[in-house]
TrEMBL record:
GO MF annotation, one: rRNA (pseudouridine-N3-)-methyltransferase activity
Name this polypeptide is given: Ribosomal RNA large subunit methyltransferase H
Subunit (UniProt): Homodimer.
Reactions performed catalytically: pseudouridine(1915) in 23S rRNA + S-adenosyl-L-methionine = N(3)-methylpseudouridine(1915) in 23S rRNA + S-adenosyl-L-homocysteine + H(+)
Assigned protein family: Belongs to the RNA methyltransferase RlmH family.
Species lineage: Bacteria, Bacillati, Bacillota, Clostridia, Eubacteriales
Domain of life from the UniProt record: Bacteria
Source organism of this protein record: Desulfofundulus thermobenzoicus
One Pfam family this sequence matches: SPOUT_MTase
Amino acid sequence: MHINLLCVGRLGERYLEAAQEEYCKRLQPYTRLEITEVRDEPFRDTRSRAVVEAVLAREGERLLRRLPAGAHVLALDRRGTMLSSEEFAALLGELGLQGKSRIVFVIGGALGLSGEVLRFAAERLSFSRLTFPHQLMRILLLEQIYRAFKINRGEPYHH
């Protein structure tokens, strides 16, 4: 299975980069992992719906250009389906059984994902009704992917 995290923006903080490196290292025995970043769009005023929509549209165009053909796309969206770690593991396992060998998780920027990106996604997932910084969400997703592989292989996970 080849998993790609397609993300708006860079991590920017050394402690987040260290966490990402650690999970990438842990995932090496289980999957081919790729992390693709697209530039985030600068903005100042989130009170204007027009500004928000323009930012989301520009970031969405960048994301859609980087989606590999034939990939199964899962968008992280706070309005998406919430799963337990076991259900998330089962989802990844089922995708593998269905022959979906290329999985792309899309993480939006500070304002989320455009409607166009959300429509393109086969599924929308939410990790919580809480809002997380998109940089931290990347680390949470990597941890859950790692946990899912451990669960699916019946291996202990205590970290």
